[in-house]
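Tip: read the tokens left to right.
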């Protein structure tokens, strides 16, 4: 029988667990034959990548199975991170790092004549997120596993992730991201744990056997959710947690009905509609679109996940009353906020729980992270749309709202205005459900993602909720994983650091502080500079190959890489570029610190102004890069298709990190942390986490400019007139006039008019007000860069003082203050 086979023998025989170089090579060749069905003469790079991926996956499976067994036995308290986005980036390299076999495998592949870099390049990254919010979820999964916290990520397995970006004639063009077309070796489908979700229809009211008045939901559509699991291994630990993503399918029973009635096409249509739900990621960042399909996606993954959690609870023989003891659910913004209502519905309608108990469980289960202050990003759903998709949920929301407003009335008597402001329903015009209000009421904890952001939430966007529930609010400053964004992507710098202070900084980033003892060590400085130079040279090669632009690795690499949005102000950097260009044109012999301006990022497909800014970058680049007067002193590069893979090449190569959003607009930022960790200096405003980064690295090591949040509010309140700055600042006027004249658009003075007109007449993001301060600060940057010893010193201090911004620290804060969850040690027991 199976039991008779010695477990140890099974491991040895299978080649599937050994981590020495010889076993890894043998396993790799086995997989090439038996999984890919190829031998070397016919194998493609993809075959080799797949063979290696399966070799790594086998090592993960052993840890994954042991982890699941341990959690099941112990009935461990578990974090469920609910997120509409997980921007994981490629798995292969990260898993090699976390398994501790990167160097062996690199060498093993080299012995077979293969380049590990090339194999990694072959992986299609799962781009199931837009930007910061989705990448934060991915960093948090890495830290949760590294800290041995039992956890599950729950989300949607979009068939098409964030679009691929092409540039044609300087404009962004979108292509669908077919990330699954070559197969995904990292996931395992679990059809046996499929669940059904309901949509649409109406509710019916009845009196149950005990005489209680009850509701039942009669849907007009049923959809099946199928879970696909990906193991998330921690760094140097046996813990491998699970990312569980749901795919929508039509249930067979459904096509059956139409099929029997002879309506074949109707059945196929039904199937197509159902499967649309997980078809594509909405490509909006920091803005909500209000489309029915989006609400359907949100409800779909949330309902699947909650049902899955109830199954897990039952599987461990725990009563439903313990739901909030078994699980802590974090809502990644309001995208999964419908959970609050869905859990109430499951407890009350499916499990006959009474309202009070269901509410206690529900609000003790959920905690809500807010990620934005932008009004256009605050989700609200027209009542009509909401009620037609989720009729039972709308009833429950009315009930939650009534009870909530009763509480408000008690705490703040005779304050009708406050009740109107706080209601879960916006009744000022067309009626809407306010998702942030639902999340606040239904959660026991609410947090912002940087100190300034949390403060502004309390003072402004969520002020009424702060006054109602001050105890619910805490700050949880974002963090990033040093495994992917240092050890994997900047191996040379990581090895230099380890050679000086040992390798425990990788799990305890605060230890980087020990680097301070070497800031004035000439040998260390030389090494530090050499490595930065090496990364810049590699990026220069990439730019040569992809953009056909030659850039000088000795020039200052000035980089802004992030989603395109007016509040992030990529066009403020453009005004700087045009200003430098104008100075050269006015005085061709002027001395200018040579700079390479590098941009990367996608614009939402429907965001015209963001797309126009991309076009302007490319237009300015076309002129500046070819002008003989410039003589290589300035280069402007737009790197297309910015994604995690490209980000990993970019951070190590940056000298200067642009974090120049209007104060009070960027909730936190996380790219700012990744750049500084890799030794870039920051030019930035007092916005988001920049404030804390500056505090940590010291004001003398940070290039600060611009208005403060308060000054911005003040100017706005007192009638800001951008045109006044245009008329009083000669360099600003010249830069704007050059763009407006058609100088960068072959004489076409219309092309950039929408942008120019907006800046002159609105400028809601205060570019003109910050222009002079920005230019002066950039002049200082240029001066400091000429003193390489000083610059290097600042660079070392920046990296050395980034300890706070590890996602491990963020996760420890969440565990202690919100989730109340402890680590669980996993031991390897079987294969
Ligand atoms: F609008 N963020 C994002 F708050 O990347 F939902 N996408 C989004 O849709 C939203 C926020 C949302 C970002 C913030 O803009 C950024 O400042 C922050 O660092 C990041 O979320 C992670 O907290």
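Filled-in amino acids:
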């Amino acid at each position: 029988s199976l039991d008779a086979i010695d477990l140890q023998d099974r491991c040895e025989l299978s080649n599937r667990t050994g981590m020495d170089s010889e076993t890894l090579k043998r396993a790799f060749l086995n997989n090439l034959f038996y999984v890919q069905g190829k031998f070397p003469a016919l194998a493609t790079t993809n075959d080799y990548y797949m063979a290696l991926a399966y070799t790594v996956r086998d090592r993960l499976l052993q840890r994954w199975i042991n982890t699941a067994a341990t959690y099941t036995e112990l009935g461990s308290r578990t974090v469920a991170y609910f997120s509409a986005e997980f921007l994981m980036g490629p798995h292969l390299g990260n898993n090699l790092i976390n398994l501790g076999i990167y160097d062996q495998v690199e060498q093993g592949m080299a012995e077979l004549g293969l380049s590990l870099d090339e194999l990694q390049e072959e992986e299609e990254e799962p781009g199931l997120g837009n930007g910061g919010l989705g990448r934060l979820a991915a960093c948090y999964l890495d830290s949760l596993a590294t800290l041995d916290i039992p956890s599950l990520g729950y989300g949607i397995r979009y068939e098409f992730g964030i679009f691929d970006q092409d540039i044609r004639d300087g404009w962004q063009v979108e292509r669908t991201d077919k990330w699954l077309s070559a197969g995904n070796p990292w996931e395992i489908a679990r059809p046996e744990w499929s669940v059904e979700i309901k949509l649409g229809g109406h509710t019916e009211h009845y009196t149950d056997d005990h005489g209680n008045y009850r509701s039942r939901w009669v849907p007009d559509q049923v959809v099946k959710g199928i879970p696909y699991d990906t193991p998330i291994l921690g760094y140097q630990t046996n813990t491998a947690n699970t990312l569980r993503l749901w795919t929508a399918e039509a249930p067979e029973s459904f096509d059956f009905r139409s099929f029997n009635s002879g309506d074949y096409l109707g059945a196929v249509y039904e199937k197509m509609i159902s499967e649309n739900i997980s078809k594509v990621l909405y490509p909006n960042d920091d803005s909500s679109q209000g489309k029915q399909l989006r609400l359907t996606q949100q409800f779909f993954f949330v309902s699947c996940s909650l049902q899955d959690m109830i199954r897990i609870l039952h599987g461990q023989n725990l009563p439903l009353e313990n739901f909030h003891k078994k699980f802590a659910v974090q809502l990644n913004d309001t995208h999964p906020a419908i959970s609050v209502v869905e859990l109430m519905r499951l407890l009350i309608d499916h499990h006959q729980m009474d309202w009070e108990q269901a509410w206690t469980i529900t609000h003790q289960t959920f905690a809500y992270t807010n990620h934005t202050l932008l009004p256009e990003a605050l989700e609200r759903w027209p009542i009509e749309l909401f009620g037609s998709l989720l009729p039972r949920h709308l009833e429950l929301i009315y009930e939650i709202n009534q009870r909530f407003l009763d509480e408000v009335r008690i705490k703040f008597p005779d304050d009708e205005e406050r009740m109107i402001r706080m209601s879960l329903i916006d009744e000022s015009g067309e009626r809407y459900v306010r998702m942030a209000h639902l999340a606040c009421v239904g959660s026991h904890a609410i947090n912002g993602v940087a100190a300034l952001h949390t403060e502004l939430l309390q003072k402004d966007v969520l002020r009424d909720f702060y006054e109602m529930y001050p105890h619910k609010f805490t700050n949880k400053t974002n963090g990033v994983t040093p495994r992917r964004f240092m050890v994997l992507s900047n191996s040379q710098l990581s090895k230099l650091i380890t050679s000086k202070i040992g390798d425990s900084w990788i799990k305890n980033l605060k230890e980087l502080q020990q680097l301070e003892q070497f800031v004035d060590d000439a040998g260390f400085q030389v090494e530090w500079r050499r490595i930065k130079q090496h990364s810049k040279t590699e990026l220069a090669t990439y730019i040569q190959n992809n953009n056909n632009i030659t850039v000088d690795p000795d020039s200052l690499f000035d980089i802004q890489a992030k989603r395109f949005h007016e509040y992030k102000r990529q066009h403020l950097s453009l005004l700087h570029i045009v200003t430098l260009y104008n100075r050269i044109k006015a005085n061709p012999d002027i001395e200018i610190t040579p700079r390479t301006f590098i941009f990367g990022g996608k614009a939402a497909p429907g965001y015209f102004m963001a797309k126009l800014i991309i076009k302007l970058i490319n237009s300015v680049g076309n002129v500046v890069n070819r002008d003989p007067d410039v003589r290589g002193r300035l280069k402007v590069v737009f790197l297309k298709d910015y994604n995690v893979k490209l980000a990993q090449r970019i951070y190590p190569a940056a000298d200067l990190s642009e974090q120049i959003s209007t104060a009070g607009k960027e909730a936190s930022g996380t790219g700012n942390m990744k750049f500084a960790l890799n030794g870039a200096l920051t030019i930035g405003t007092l916005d988001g986490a920049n404030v804390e980064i500056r505090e940590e690295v010291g004001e003398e090591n940070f290039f600060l400019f611009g208005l403060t949040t308060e000054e911005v509010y003040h100017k706005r309140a007192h009638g800001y007139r951008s045109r006044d700055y245009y008329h009083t600042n000669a360099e600003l006027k010249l830069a704007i006039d050059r763009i407006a004249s058609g100088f960068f658009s072959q004489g076409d003075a219309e092309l950039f008019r929408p942008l120019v007109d907006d800046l002159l007449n609105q400028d809601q993001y205060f570019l003109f007000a910050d222009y002079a301060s920005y230019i002066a600060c950039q002049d200082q940057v240029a001066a400091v860069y000429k003193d390489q010893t000083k610059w290097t010193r600042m660079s070392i201090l920046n990296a050395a003082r980034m300890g706070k911004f590890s996602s491990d620290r963020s996760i420890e804060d969440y565990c202690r203050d919100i989730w109340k969850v402890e680590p669980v040690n996993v031991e390897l027991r079987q294969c």
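Residues 75-89+125-376+814-819 form a domain with the Rossmann fold fold (CATH 3.40.50.2000). The longest helix spans residues 45-74.
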